Amino acid sequence: MQKRKIRALTVAGGLLAGVVLLGSSSAEAGATAAMLANTCAGCHGTNGVSGGPAMPTIAGMPAKYLKEVMAAFKSDKRPSTIMGRLAKGYSDEEIALIADFFAKQKWQNAQSAPQSKMATPVNATLAKQGEKTTKAAKCDKCHEDNGVFQDDDTPRMAGQWLDYLRFKVQDLKNPAITVPQADKMKAGIDKLSAEELEAVAHFYASQK
Amino acid sequence: MTNLTRRGFIKLTGGAAAVGLTSSLVAPSIVGAAQQQVVVVGGGYGGAVAAKYIRMADPKIQVTLIEKSADYYSCPLSNWVVAGFRDMALQKWGYDGLKKHGITVVIDEVTGIDPAGQTVKTAGGKSFKYDRLVVSPGVDFKEFPGYDAAAQAKIVHAWKAGPETVTLAKQLAAMQDGDTFILVAPADPYRCPPGPYERASLVAHYLKKNKPKSKLVILDAKPKFSKQGLFQEGWTQLYGFGTDNSIIKWVSGAEGGKVVRVDAKEMAVYTDNNGFEEKHVGACINFIPPNVAGSIAKAAGLTNESGWCPVNLATFESKLHKGVFVIGDSSASGGMPKSGYAANSQAKVVAAAIVAQLNGQEPGEASYVNTCYSMLSPTYGISVAAVWKFDPATPDKVKEIVSGVSPAKAAEYVRKQEALYNESWYQSIMADTFG
Description:
Chain A is mostly helical. Chain A is about 55% helix and about 0% strand. In chain A, helix 4 packs antiparallel against helix 6 and helix 7 packs across helix 11. Helices cover about 25% and strands about 25% of the residues of chain B. In chain B, helix 6 links the parallel strand 11 and strand 12. Chain B starts with about 35 loop residues before the first strand and ends with a helix.
Protein backbone atom coordinates (compact mmCIF):
# COMPACT_ATOMS: atom_id res chain seq x y z
CA MET A 1 0.00 0.00 0.00
CA GLN A 2 2.76 2.34 1.01
CA LYS A 3 4.56 1.58 -2.24
CA ARG A 4 1.53 2.35 -4.38
CA LYS A 5 1.24 5.75 -2.82
CA ILE A 6 4.87 6.51 -3.51
CA ARG A 7 4.41 5.46 -7.10
CA ALA A 8 1.50 7.88 -7.55
CA LEU A 9 3.60 10.67 -6.12
CA THR A 10 6.45 9.87 -8.48
CA VAL A 11 4.21 10.24 -11.50
CA ALA A 12 2.95 13.60 -10.30
CA GLY A 13 6.49 14.74 -9.54
CA GLY A 14 7.63 13.70 -13.00
CA LEU A 15 4.92 15.75 -14.64
CA LEU A 16 5.74 18.76 -12.56
CA ALA A 17 9.43 18.50 -13.43
CA GLY A 18 8.49 18.33 -17.09
CA VAL A 19 6.49 21.55 -16.90
CA VAL A 20 9.26 23.41 -15.11
CA LEU A 21 11.78 22.23 -17.70
CA LEU A 22 9.67 23.33 -20.63
CA GLY A 23 9.31 26.78 -19.15
CA SER A 24 12.99 27.28 -18.52
CA SER A 25 14.77 25.43 -21.32
CA SER A 26 14.90 28.20 -23.87
CA ALA A 27 15.69 30.91 -21.37
CA GLU A 28 19.06 29.38 -20.57
CA ALA A 29 22.04 29.51 -22.86
CA GLY A 30 23.63 26.27 -24.01
CA ALA A 31 22.47 23.26 -25.94
CA THR A 32 18.84 22.18 -25.61
CA ALA A 33 17.83 18.92 -23.96
CA ALA A 34 17.01 17.43 -27.36
CA MET A 35 20.34 18.50 -28.87
CA LEU A 36 22.22 16.85 -26.01
CA ALA A 37 20.04 13.74 -25.76
CA ASN A 38 19.99 13.06 -29.50
CA THR A 39 23.75 12.53 -29.42
CA CYS A 40 23.09 9.48 -27.20
CA ALA A 41 20.81 7.86 -29.79
CA GLY A 42 23.70 6.48 -31.85
CA CYS A 43 24.12 3.83 -29.13
CA HIS A 44 20.88 3.96 -27.15
CA GLY A 45 18.57 4.27 -30.16
CA THR A 46 16.17 7.00 -31.27
CA ASN A 47 14.63 8.60 -28.14
CA GLY A 48 16.46 6.03 -26.02
CA VAL A 49 14.79 2.93 -27.45
CA SER A 50 17.77 0.65 -28.01
CA GLY A 51 18.04 -1.58 -31.05
CA GLY A 52 20.81 -3.76 -29.76
CA PRO A 53 21.29 -6.69 -27.44
CA ALA A 54 23.71 -5.14 -24.92
CA MET A 55 22.76 -1.46 -25.09
CA PRO A 56 20.04 -0.74 -22.54
CA THR A 57 16.83 1.01 -23.45
CA ILE A 58 16.68 4.19 -21.36
CA ALA A 59 13.42 5.66 -22.72
CA GLY A 60 10.94 6.29 -19.93
CA MET A 61 13.36 5.45 -17.13
CA PRO A 62 13.02 7.57 -13.97
CA ALA A 63 14.90 10.87 -14.35
CA LYS A 64 16.41 10.65 -10.87
CA TYR A 65 17.73 7.16 -11.56
CA LEU A 66 19.30 8.30 -14.85
CA LYS A 67 20.89 11.31 -13.18
CA GLU A 68 22.35 9.19 -10.40
CA VAL A 69 23.72 6.63 -12.83
CA MET A 70 25.32 9.35 -14.96
CA ALA A 71 26.80 11.04 -11.88
CA ALA A 72 28.23 7.68 -10.78
CA PHE A 73 29.72 7.14 -14.26
CA LYS A 74 31.20 10.63 -14.19
CA SER A 75 32.89 10.09 -10.82
CA ASP A 76 34.02 6.56 -11.80
CA LYS A 77 31.99 5.09 -8.93
CA ARG A 78 30.03 2.94 -11.35
CA PRO A 79 32.12 0.64 -13.51
CA SER A 80 31.70 0.91 -17.27
CA THR A 81 33.48 0.37 -20.53
CA ILE A 82 32.64 3.65 -22.28
CA MET A 83 30.09 5.59 -20.21
CA GLY A 84 32.67 6.74 -17.67
CA ARG A 85 34.50 8.46 -20.52
CA LEU A 86 31.39 9.99 -22.10
CA ALA A 87 29.74 11.16 -18.87
CA LYS A 88 32.73 13.39 -18.12
CA GLY A 89 31.82 15.38 -21.24
CA TYR A 90 28.72 16.89 -19.60
CA SER A 91 28.01 19.31 -16.75
CA ASP A 92 25.56 18.28 -14.03
CA GLU A 93 23.03 20.68 -15.58
CA GLU A 94 23.44 19.04 -18.98
CA ILE A 95 23.08 15.59 -17.43
CA ALA A 96 19.85 16.76 -15.79
CA LEU A 97 18.52 17.93 -19.18
CA ILE A 98 19.45 14.62 -20.79
CA ALA A 99 17.89 12.58 -17.98
CA ASP A 100 14.65 14.58 -18.05
CA PHE A 101 14.48 14.20 -21.84
CA PHE A 102 14.75 10.41 -21.72
CA ALA A 103 12.39 10.13 -18.73
CA LYS A 104 9.70 11.73 -20.88
CA GLN A 105 10.09 9.21 -23.73
CA LYS A 106 8.00 6.07 -24.07
CA TRP A 107 9.46 2.76 -22.89
CA GLN A 108 9.44 -0.08 -25.43
CA ASN A 109 10.21 -3.68 -24.58
CA ALA A 110 13.22 -5.21 -26.28
CA GLN A 111 12.35 -6.77 -29.60
CA SER A 112 14.27 -9.32 -31.58
CA ALA A 113 17.31 -7.94 -33.37
CA PRO A 114 17.21 -9.81 -36.68
CA GLN A 115 20.44 -8.25 -37.92
CA SER A 116 22.33 -9.22 -34.77
CA LYS A 117 24.31 -12.44 -34.78
CA MET A 118 25.55 -12.10 -31.22
CA ALA A 119 22.33 -11.61 -29.23
CA THR A 120 21.67 -14.20 -26.52
CA PRO A 121 18.16 -15.63 -26.98
CA VAL A 122 15.87 -15.66 -23.94
CA ASN A 123 15.76 -19.20 -22.55
CA ALA A 124 12.29 -20.12 -21.23
CA THR A 125 13.59 -22.76 -18.81
CA LEU A 126 16.11 -20.35 -17.32
CA ALA A 127 13.43 -17.66 -17.14
CA LYS A 128 11.21 -20.02 -15.06
CA GLN A 129 14.09 -20.76 -12.70
CA GLY A 130 14.83 -17.06 -12.51
CA GLU A 131 11.25 -16.28 -11.54
CA LYS A 132 11.51 -18.65 -8.55
CA THR A 133 14.80 -17.04 -7.57
CA THR A 134 13.36 -13.53 -7.66
CA LYS A 135 10.57 -14.63 -5.31
CA ALA A 136 12.88 -16.54 -2.96
CA ALA A 137 15.43 -13.71 -2.83
CA LYS A 138 12.63 -11.12 -2.51
CA CYS A 139 13.76 -9.15 -5.57
CA ASP A 140 10.06 -8.42 -6.02
CA LYS A 141 9.99 -6.34 -2.84
CA CYS A 142 11.39 -3.48 -4.92
CA HIS A 143 11.27 -4.76 -8.51
CA GLU A 144 7.51 -5.25 -8.22
CA ASP A 145 5.18 -6.58 -10.90
CA ASN A 146 7.85 -8.91 -12.26
CA GLY A 147 10.17 -5.98 -12.87
CA VAL A 148 7.65 -3.71 -14.58
CA PHE A 149 7.54 -1.31 -11.63
CA GLN A 150 9.96 1.58 -11.44
CA ASP A 151 10.50 4.53 -9.15
CA ASP A 152 13.30 7.00 -8.46
CA ASP A 153 15.60 4.32 -7.07
CA THR A 154 14.35 1.33 -9.03
CA PRO A 155 14.91 0.95 -12.77
CA ARG A 156 12.44 -1.01 -14.82
CA MET A 157 13.77 -4.52 -15.49
CA ALA A 158 10.94 -6.18 -17.43
CA GLY A 159 11.52 -6.24 -21.17
CA GLN A 160 15.05 -4.83 -20.95
CA TRP A 161 17.60 -6.23 -23.40
CA LEU A 162 18.88 -9.59 -22.14
CA ASP A 163 22.55 -9.12 -22.91
CA TYR A 164 22.55 -5.83 -21.00
CA LEU A 165 21.01 -7.56 -17.97
CA ARG A 166 23.51 -10.41 -18.30
CA PHE A 167 26.44 -7.97 -18.31
CA LYS A 168 25.04 -6.22 -15.25
CA VAL A 169 24.61 -9.42 -13.21
CA GLN A 170 28.05 -10.60 -14.33
CA ASP A 171 29.47 -7.29 -13.10
CA LEU A 172 27.83 -7.87 -9.70
CA LYS A 173 29.74 -11.13 -9.31
CA ASN A 174 32.99 -9.83 -10.76
CA PRO A 175 35.59 -9.57 -7.96
CA ALA A 176 37.60 -7.05 -9.99
CA ILE A 177 34.92 -4.36 -9.79
CA THR A 178 32.53 -2.82 -7.29
CA VAL A 179 29.06 -1.88 -8.46
CA PRO A 180 27.28 0.70 -6.29
CA GLN A 181 24.10 -0.82 -4.88
CA ALA A 182 21.56 -0.17 -2.16
CA ASP A 183 22.37 -2.14 1.02
CA LYS A 184 19.25 -4.27 0.82
CA MET A 185 20.00 -5.10 -2.81
CA LYS A 186 23.57 -6.06 -2.03
CA ALA A 187 22.45 -8.30 0.83
CA GLY A 188 20.12 -10.15 -1.56
CA ILE A 189 22.60 -10.35 -4.42
CA ASP A 190 25.41 -11.69 -2.23
CA LYS A 191 23.31 -14.78 -1.47
CA LEU A 192 22.82 -15.62 -5.14
CA SER A 193 25.23 -17.55 -7.35
CA ALA A 194 26.30 -16.37 -10.81
CA GLU A 195 24.08 -19.11 -12.30
CA GLU A 196 21.05 -17.96 -10.31
CA LEU A 197 21.64 -14.37 -11.39
CA GLU A 198 21.92 -15.44 -15.02
CA ALA A 199 18.49 -17.05 -14.65
CA VAL A 200 17.16 -13.85 -13.06
CA ALA A 201 18.37 -11.89 -16.11
CA HIS A 202 16.50 -14.29 -18.40
CA PHE A 203 13.37 -13.94 -16.27
CA TYR A 204 13.26 -10.14 -16.37
CA ALA A 205 14.12 -10.06 -20.07
CA SER A 206 11.21 -12.46 -20.72
CA GLN A 207 8.69 -10.13 -19.05
CA LYS A 208 6.76 -7.44 -20.92
CA MET B 1 15.91 38.05 -33.43
CA THR B 2 13.08 38.92 -35.75
CA ASN B 3 9.51 37.94 -35.01
CA LEU B 4 8.58 37.96 -38.63
CA THR B 5 9.35 34.83 -40.61
CA ARG B 6 9.77 34.79 -44.35
CA ARG B 7 6.30 33.38 -44.58
CA GLY B 8 5.04 36.54 -43.03
CA PHE B 9 3.31 35.48 -39.85
CA ILE B 10 4.02 36.27 -36.25
CA LYS B 11 5.52 33.48 -34.23
CA LEU B 12 6.46 33.28 -30.61
CA THR B 13 10.17 33.45 -30.07
CA GLY B 14 12.39 33.42 -27.03
CA GLY B 15 10.52 32.82 -23.75
CA ALA B 16 8.33 29.81 -24.18
CA ALA B 17 9.10 28.82 -27.76
CA ALA B 18 11.86 26.30 -27.22
CA VAL B 19 14.47 26.38 -29.92
CA GLY B 20 15.49 22.91 -30.95
CA LEU B 21 14.47 19.54 -32.15
CA THR B 22 11.60 18.59 -29.94
CA SER B 23 9.88 21.77 -29.02
CA SER B 24 6.78 20.64 -27.20
CA LEU B 25 4.83 23.54 -28.60
CA VAL B 26 2.76 22.84 -31.65
CA ALA B 27 3.40 25.58 -34.15
CA PRO B 28 0.34 27.18 -35.67
CA SER B 29 -0.68 25.64 -38.98
CA ILE B 30 -0.25 27.89 -41.94
CA VAL B 31 -3.21 27.76 -44.20
CA GLY B 32 -2.26 28.13 -47.82
CA ALA B 33 1.46 28.65 -47.17
CA ALA B 34 3.87 26.82 -49.42
CA GLN B 35 5.72 24.00 -47.66
CA GLN B 36 9.37 24.54 -47.01
CA GLN B 37 11.50 22.12 -49.00
CA VAL B 38 14.63 20.39 -47.81
CA VAL B 39 16.55 18.15 -50.19
CA VAL B 40 19.10 15.67 -48.85
CA VAL B 41 21.74 14.26 -51.19
CA GLY B 42 23.03 10.88 -49.99
CA GLY B 43 21.27 8.37 -47.74
CA GLY B 44 23.96 7.03 -45.43
CA TYR B 45 24.99 7.59 -41.82
CA GLY B 46 24.70 11.36 -42.32
CA GLY B 47 21.99 12.09 -44.86
CA ALA B 48 19.37 9.60 -43.71
CA VAL B 49 19.65 10.85 -40.12
CA ALA B 50 19.37 14.51 -41.15
CA ALA B 51 16.23 13.74 -43.16
CA LYS B 52 14.63 11.78 -40.30
CA TYR B 53 15.45 14.28 -37.54
CA ILE B 54 14.14 17.24 -39.56
CA ARG B 55 10.83 15.43 -39.95
CA MET B 56 10.77 14.38 -36.29
CA ALA B 57 11.28 17.99 -35.20
CA ASP B 58 9.00 19.70 -37.72
CA PRO B 59 6.61 17.62 -39.85
CA LYS B 60 5.57 20.77 -41.71
CA ILE B 61 8.84 20.70 -43.61
CA GLN B 62 8.86 18.56 -46.73
CA VAL B 63 11.99 16.43 -47.02
CA THR B 64 13.21 14.67 -50.14
CA LEU B 65 16.11 12.24 -49.85
CA ILE B 66 17.94 11.43 -53.08
CA GLU B 67 20.13 8.34 -53.00
CA LYS B 68 21.79 6.44 -55.82
CA SER B 69 21.21 2.90 -54.53
CA ALA B 70 18.00 1.33 -53.25
CA ASP B 71 20.09 -0.95 -51.01
CA TYR B 72 22.46 0.53 -48.46
CA TYR B 73 25.43 -1.49 -47.20
CA SER B 74 27.01 -0.34 -43.94
CA CYS B 75 30.77 0.10 -43.79
CA PRO B 76 30.88 -0.39 -40.01
CA LEU B 77 31.04 -4.15 -39.36
CA SER B 78 31.90 -4.85 -43.04
CA ASN B 79 35.42 -5.85 -41.96
CA TRP B 80 33.74 -8.76 -40.18
CA VAL B 81 32.40 -9.85 -43.57
CA VAL B 82 35.88 -9.63 -45.12
CA ALA B 83 37.21 -11.90 -42.36
CA GLY B 84 34.42 -14.41 -42.97
CA PHE B 85 32.48 -14.24 -39.70
CA ARG B 86 29.54 -12.12 -40.75
CA ASP B 87 26.99 -12.48 -43.54
CA MET B 88 26.81 -9.54 -45.98
CA ALA B 89 23.01 -9.69 -45.74
CA LEU B 90 23.30 -8.33 -42.19
CA GLN B 91 24.96 -5.19 -43.61
CA LYS B 92 22.05 -4.39 -45.90
CA TRP B 93 19.48 -1.71 -45.10
CA GLY B 94 16.69 0.02 -47.05
CA TYR B 95 14.62 3.18 -47.04
CA ASP B 96 11.11 1.96 -46.11
CA GLY B 97 11.58 3.13 -42.51
CA LEU B 98 12.33 6.69 -43.65
CA LYS B 99 9.22 6.74 -45.82
CA LYS B 100 7.19 6.14 -42.63
CA HIS B 101 8.51 9.49 -41.38
CA GLY B 102 6.95 11.11 -44.44
CA ILE B 103 10.25 11.50 -46.27
CA THR B 104 10.08 11.32 -50.06
CA VAL B 105 12.81 8.88 -51.07
CA VAL B 106 14.05 9.16 -54.65
CA ILE B 107 16.42 6.50 -55.97
CA ASP B 108 18.42 8.44 -58.53
CA GLU B 109 21.89 9.88 -58.97
CA VAL B 110 22.41 13.59 -58.36
CA THR B 111 24.34 15.00 -61.30
CA GLY B 112 24.23 18.70 -60.58
CA ILE B 113 23.68 21.16 -57.76
CA ASP B 114 22.97 24.81 -58.51
CA PRO B 115 23.40 26.73 -55.25
CA ALA B 116 22.36 30.04 -56.84
CA GLY B 117 19.17 28.62 -58.35
CA GLN B 118 18.64 26.36 -55.29
CA THR B 119 18.07 23.37 -57.54
CA VAL B 120 19.30 19.78 -57.70
CA LYS B 121 19.32 17.80 -60.95
CA THR B 122 19.47 14.03 -61.33
CA ALA B 123 20.59 11.49 -63.92
CA GLY B 124 16.95 10.49 -64.24
CA GLY B 125 16.21 13.96 -65.62
CA LYS B 126 14.41 15.23 -62.55
CA SER B 127 14.85 18.64 -60.96
CA PHE B 128 14.25 19.50 -57.29
CA LYS B 129 13.93 23.00 -55.80
CA TYR B 130 15.06 23.46 -52.25
CA ASP B 131 14.98 26.01 -49.44
CA ARG B 132 17.80 24.19 -47.67
CA LEU B 133 20.10 21.47 -49.03
CA VAL B 134 21.99 18.79 -47.12
CA VAL B 135 24.92 17.17 -48.94
CA SER B 136 26.22 13.92 -47.43
CA PRO B 137 27.91 11.96 -50.22
CA GLY B 138 30.67 10.23 -48.25
CA VAL B 139 34.11 9.90 -49.80
CA ASP B 140 35.53 9.33 -53.24
CA PHE B 141 39.09 8.44 -54.14
CA LYS B 142 41.98 10.34 -55.66
CA GLU B 143 43.58 9.02 -58.81
CA PHE B 144 46.68 7.00 -58.02
CA PRO B 145 49.56 5.82 -60.26
CA GLY B 146 48.79 2.37 -61.64
CA TYR B 147 45.38 2.12 -59.98
CA ASP B 148 43.29 2.36 -63.16
CA ALA B 149 40.04 0.60 -63.99
CA ALA B 150 41.82 -2.62 -64.99
CA ALA B 151 43.82 -2.64 -61.76
CA GLN B 152 40.68 -1.98 -59.75
CA ALA B 153 39.16 -5.15 -61.16
CA LYS B 154 41.96 -7.20 -59.54
CA ILE B 155 42.88 -5.11 -56.52
CA VAL B 156 39.93 -3.74 -54.56
CA HIS B 157 39.79 -1.09 -51.86
CA ALA B 158 36.48 -2.24 -50.31
CA TRP B 159 36.40 1.16 -48.60
CA LYS B 160 32.77 1.51 -49.56
CA ALA B 161 30.77 -1.50 -48.39
CA GLY B 162 29.14 -3.49 -51.17
CA PRO B 163 30.29 -5.89 -53.88
CA GLU B 164 33.97 -5.09 -53.20
CA THR B 165 33.56 -6.23 -49.60
CA VAL B 166 32.47 -9.64 -50.85
CA THR B 167 35.24 -9.71 -53.47
CA LEU B 168 37.88 -9.06 -50.82
CA ALA B 169 36.43 -11.78 -48.58
CA LYS B 170 36.62 -14.22 -51.51
CA GLN B 171 40.19 -13.20 -52.36
CA LEU B 172 41.24 -13.76 -48.76
CA ALA B 173 39.53 -17.15 -48.68
CA ALA B 174 41.26 -18.13 -51.96
CA MET B 175 44.77 -17.47 -50.60
CA GLN B 176 47.10 -20.46 -50.19
CA ASP B 177 48.58 -21.13 -46.78
CA GLY B 178 51.88 -19.23 -46.77
CA ASP B 179 50.72 -16.45 -49.11
CA THR B 180 51.07 -12.79 -48.14
CA PHE B 181 48.19 -10.34 -47.73
CA ILE B 182 49.16 -6.69 -48.30
CA LEU B 183 47.01 -3.93 -46.86
CA VAL B 184 47.84 -0.41 -48.02
CA ALA B 185 46.63 2.23 -45.52
CA PRO B 186 46.09 5.78 -46.80
CA ALA B 187 47.45 9.11 -45.61
CA ASP B 188 45.25 11.32 -43.42
CA PRO B 189 42.54 12.39 -43.62
CA TYR B 190 40.36 9.48 -44.65
CA ARG B 191 37.13 7.70 -43.79
CA CYS B 192 37.27 5.68 -40.56
CA PRO B 193 40.76 6.29 -39.11
CA PRO B 194 40.98 2.95 -37.19
CA GLY B 195 39.34 1.02 -40.06
CA PRO B 196 42.48 -0.26 -41.83
CA TYR B 197 43.86 -1.57 -38.52
CA GLU B 198 40.61 -3.28 -37.58
CA ARG B 199 40.65 -4.89 -41.02
CA ALA B 200 44.26 -5.98 -40.51
CA SER B 201 43.35 -7.45 -37.11
CA LEU B 202 40.42 -9.43 -38.44
CA VAL B 203 42.31 -10.67 -41.51
CA ALA B 204 45.04 -11.80 -39.09
CA HIS B 205 42.37 -13.59 -37.05
CA TYR B 206 41.26 -15.38 -40.21
CA LEU B 207 44.84 -16.27 -41.19
CA LYS B 208 45.68 -17.56 -37.72
CA LYS B 209 42.72 -19.94 -37.90
CA ASN B 210 42.83 -20.94 -41.56
CA LYS B 211 46.26 -20.15 -43.03
CA PRO B 212 48.74 -20.20 -40.16
CA LYS B 213 51.79 -19.88 -42.44
CA SER B 214 50.47 -16.71 -44.08
CA LYS B 215 51.43 -13.17 -43.12
CA LEU B 216 49.84 -9.76 -43.38
CA VAL B 217 51.86 -6.65 -44.15
CA ILE B 218 50.44 -3.17 -43.57
CA LEU B 219 52.15 -0.61 -45.78
CA ASP B 220 51.32 2.75 -44.29
CA ALA B 221 51.78 6.29 -45.52
CA LYS B 222 51.57 7.51 -41.91
CA PRO B 223 54.01 7.59 -38.99
CA LYS B 224 51.29 6.57 -36.50
CA PHE B 225 47.63 5.63 -36.46
CA SER B 226 44.36 5.72 -34.52
CA LYS B 227 44.16 3.67 -31.28
CA GLN B 228 47.70 2.48 -32.10
CA GLY B 229 48.66 1.55 -28.54
CA LEU B 230 45.55 -0.57 -28.08
CA PHE B 231 45.88 -2.22 -31.49
CA GLN B 232 49.51 -3.14 -30.89
CA GLU B 233 48.76 -4.42 -27.39
CA GLY B 234 46.02 -6.64 -28.84
CA TRP B 235 48.18 -7.80 -31.75
CA THR B 236 50.88 -8.78 -29.25
CA GLN B 237 48.36 -10.84 -27.28
CA LEU B 238 46.57 -12.37 -30.23
CA TYR B 239 48.93 -12.45 -33.21
CA GLY B 240 52.48 -12.49 -31.84
CA PHE B 241 53.12 -8.88 -32.82
CA GLY B 242 56.70 -7.83 -32.17
CA THR B 243 58.08 -11.39 -32.50
CA ASP B 244 59.65 -13.07 -35.53
CA ASN B 245 56.51 -15.14 -35.92
CA SER B 246 54.10 -12.21 -35.88
CA ILE B 247 51.23 -12.59 -38.33
CA ILE B 248 51.03 -8.79 -38.67
CA LYS B 249 53.88 -6.57 -39.80
CA TRP B 250 53.33 -2.80 -39.82
CA VAL B 251 55.63 -0.64 -41.94
CA SER B 252 55.29 3.10 -41.26
CA GLY B 253 55.88 5.77 -43.86
CA ALA B 254 59.26 6.61 -42.34
CA GLU B 255 60.32 2.95 -42.55
CA GLY B 256 59.48 2.66 -46.24
CA GLY B 257 55.75 1.96 -46.00
CA LYS B 258 54.62 4.76 -48.30
CA VAL B 259 53.19 3.22 -51.48
CA VAL B 260 53.84 5.27 -54.63
CA ARG B 261 52.37 3.07 -57.36
CA VAL B 262 50.35 -0.03 -57.96
CA ASP B 263 51.08 -2.74 -60.53
CA ALA B 264 48.12 -5.07 -60.79
CA LYS B 265 49.70 -7.27 -63.51
CA GLU B 266 52.54 -8.12 -61.13
CA MET B 267 50.17 -8.14 -58.11
CA ALA B 268 52.60 -5.72 -56.54
CA VAL B 269 52.81 -2.31 -54.96
CA TYR B 270 55.93 -0.16 -54.93
CA THR B 271 56.99 1.86 -51.90
CA ASP B 272 59.36 4.77 -51.54
CA ASN B 273 62.22 3.58 -49.34
CA ASN B 274 64.52 6.58 -48.88
CA GLY B 275 64.32 7.51 -52.54
CA PHE B 276 64.48 3.91 -53.82
CA GLU B 277 61.47 2.02 -55.14
CA GLU B 278 60.86 -1.20 -53.30
CA LYS B 279 58.58 -3.90 -54.71
CA HIS B 280 56.09 -5.77 -52.50
CA VAL B 281 54.25 -8.75 -53.97
CA GLY B 282 51.07 -10.11 -52.41
CA ALA B 283 48.72 -12.95 -53.31
CA CYS B 284 46.00 -10.61 -52.12
CA ILE B 285 46.37 -6.84 -52.10
CA ASN B 286 43.89 -4.49 -50.45
CA PHE B 287 44.73 -1.00 -51.64
CA ILE B 288 42.93 1.90 -49.96
CA PRO B 289 43.60 4.99 -52.12
CA PRO B 290 43.87 8.52 -50.73
CA ASN B 291 40.37 9.82 -49.93
CA VAL B 292 38.67 12.99 -51.12
CA ALA B 293 35.18 14.49 -50.70
CA GLY B 294 32.40 12.88 -52.72
CA SER B 295 32.61 14.02 -56.34
CA ILE B 296 29.20 15.71 -56.30
CA ALA B 297 30.44 18.01 -53.51
CA LYS B 298 33.35 19.05 -55.68
CA ALA B 299 31.17 19.51 -58.77
CA ALA B 300 28.86 21.75 -56.74
CA GLY B 301 31.76 23.99 -55.73
CA LEU B 302 31.54 23.00 -52.09
CA THR B 303 35.18 21.91 -51.74
CA ASN B 304 38.26 24.06 -51.30
CA GLU B 305 41.91 23.40 -52.19
CA SER B 306 42.11 20.72 -49.47
CA GLY B 307 39.63 18.58 -51.39
CA TRP B 308 37.15 18.73 -48.48
CA CYS B 309 34.16 20.98 -47.77
CA PRO B 310 34.73 23.89 -45.37
CA VAL B 311 31.76 24.40 -43.05
CA ASN B 312 30.71 26.64 -40.20
CA LEU B 313 31.26 24.27 -37.28
CA ALA B 314 28.32 25.72 -35.33
CA THR B 315 25.80 24.51 -37.93
CA PHE B 316 27.72 22.62 -40.66
CA GLU B 317 26.46 25.16 -43.20
CA SER B 318 28.89 25.46 -46.09
CA LYS B 319 31.27 28.41 -45.94
CA LEU B 320 31.10 28.57 -49.74
CA HIS B 321 27.35 28.38 -50.39
CA LYS B 322 24.63 29.65 -48.09
CA GLY B 323 21.70 27.34 -47.46
CA VAL B 324 23.80 24.25 -48.22
CA PHE B 325 24.92 22.01 -45.35
CA VAL B 326 27.68 19.43 -45.80
CA ILE B 327 27.95 16.62 -43.26
CA GLY B 328 29.83 13.39 -42.74
CA ASP B 329 33.04 12.32 -44.44
CA SER B 330 33.00 15.07 -47.09
CA SER B 331 33.06 17.90 -44.56
CA ALA B 332 36.15 19.48 -43.06
CA SER B 333 34.85 18.76 -39.58
CA GLY B 334 37.35 20.64 -37.46
CA GLY B 335 38.95 17.73 -35.66
CA MET B 336 36.10 15.25 -35.59
CA PRO B 337 36.99 11.97 -37.29
CA LYS B 338 35.38 10.83 -40.53
CA SER B 339 33.22 8.25 -38.79
CA GLY B 340 29.62 7.06 -38.99
CA TYR B 341 28.89 8.30 -35.49
CA ALA B 342 30.32 11.74 -36.19
CA ALA B 343 28.16 11.94 -39.34
CA ASN B 344 25.12 10.93 -37.27
CA SER B 345 25.91 13.61 -34.69
CA GLN B 346 26.55 16.30 -37.32
CA ALA B 347 23.27 15.36 -39.04
CA LYS B 348 21.35 16.17 -35.85
CA VAL B 349 23.06 19.55 -35.52
CA VAL B 350 22.16 20.29 -39.13
CA ALA B 351 18.57 19.12 -38.63
CA ALA B 352 18.20 21.46 -35.63
CA ALA B 353 19.82 24.35 -37.53
CA ILE B 354 17.61 23.91 -40.59
CA VAL B 355 14.43 23.58 -38.53
CA ALA B 356 15.39 26.74 -36.61
CA GLN B 357 16.24 28.68 -39.78
CA LEU B 358 13.05 27.69 -41.57
CA ASN B 359 11.05 28.77 -38.52
CA GLY B 360 12.79 32.12 -38.37
CA GLN B 361 14.79 31.24 -35.26
CA GLU B 362 18.45 31.23 -34.35
CA PRO B 363 20.02 27.74 -34.25
CA GLY B 364 20.78 26.56 -30.71
CA GLU B 365 24.16 25.50 -29.39
CA ALA B 366 25.64 22.43 -31.07
CA SER B 367 26.76 19.31 -29.22
CA TYR B 368 28.77 16.57 -30.93
CA VAL B 369 29.69 13.02 -29.96
CA ASN B 370 31.76 10.28 -31.53
CA THR B 371 31.70 6.70 -30.35
CA CYS B 372 33.63 4.24 -32.41
CA TYR B 373 34.39 0.57 -31.80
CA SER B 374 37.04 -1.59 -33.44
CA MET B 375 37.45 -5.34 -33.30
CA LEU B 376 40.76 -7.17 -32.93
CA SER B 377 39.07 -10.57 -33.00
CA PRO B 378 35.39 -11.61 -32.86
CA THR B 379 35.54 -11.42 -29.04
CA TYR B 380 37.98 -8.53 -28.57
CA GLY B 381 36.64 -4.99 -28.91
CA ILE B 382 38.11 -1.56 -28.17
CA SER B 383 36.60 1.89 -28.40
CA VAL B 384 37.20 5.60 -28.60
CA ALA B 385 34.69 8.18 -27.40
CA ALA B 386 34.65 11.97 -27.48
CA VAL B 387 32.35 14.92 -26.81
CA TRP B 388 32.78 18.28 -28.56
CA LYS B 389 31.14 21.68 -28.63
CA PHE B 390 31.45 24.67 -30.88
CA ASP B 391 33.45 27.50 -29.37
CA PRO B 392 33.31 30.83 -31.25
CA ALA B 393 36.83 31.58 -29.95
CA THR B 394 38.20 28.73 -32.09
CA PRO B 395 35.92 28.66 -35.14
CA ASP B 396 38.16 26.33 -37.19
CA LYS B 397 38.24 23.53 -34.66
CA VAL B 398 35.54 21.98 -32.51
CA LYS B 399 36.26 22.25 -28.80
CA GLU B 400 37.04 18.89 -27.26
CA ILE B 401 35.25 18.53 -23.92
CA VAL B 402 36.43 15.00 -23.33
CA SER B 403 38.07 12.23 -25.33
CA GLY B 404 39.41 8.82 -24.43
CA VAL B 405 40.09 5.27 -25.54
CA SER B 406 39.56 1.94 -23.79
CA PRO B 407 42.04 1.31 -20.98
CA ALA B 408 45.32 -0.40 -21.80
CA LYS B 409 45.92 -3.86 -20.33
CA ALA B 410 42.23 -4.30 -19.58
CA ALA B 411 40.90 -7.66 -18.40
CA GLU B 412 39.55 -10.11 -20.94
CA TYR B 413 35.93 -9.52 -19.89
CA VAL B 414 36.25 -5.81 -20.78
CA ARG B 415 37.39 -6.59 -24.34
CA LYS B 416 34.62 -9.18 -24.60
CA GLN B 417 31.96 -6.76 -23.42
CA GLU B 418 33.14 -4.12 -25.88
CA ALA B 419 32.91 -6.68 -28.71
CA LEU B 420 29.23 -7.17 -27.97
CA TYR B 421 28.76 -3.43 -27.39
CA ASN B 422 30.19 -2.95 -30.88
CA GLU B 423 27.49 -5.09 -32.45
CA SER B 424 24.88 -3.44 -30.21
CA TRP B 425 26.11 0.01 -31.28
CA TYR B 426 25.50 -1.12 -34.84
CA GLN B 427 21.91 -2.23 -34.13
CA SER B 428 21.03 1.06 -32.47
CA ILE B 429 22.73 3.41 -34.90
CA MET B 430 21.20 1.59 -37.86
CA ALA B 431 17.76 1.83 -36.23
CA ASP B 432 18.46 5.54 -35.61
CA THR B 433 19.41 5.91 -39.29
CA PHE B 434 16.85 3.82 -41.14
CA GLY B 435 14.10 3.09 -38.59
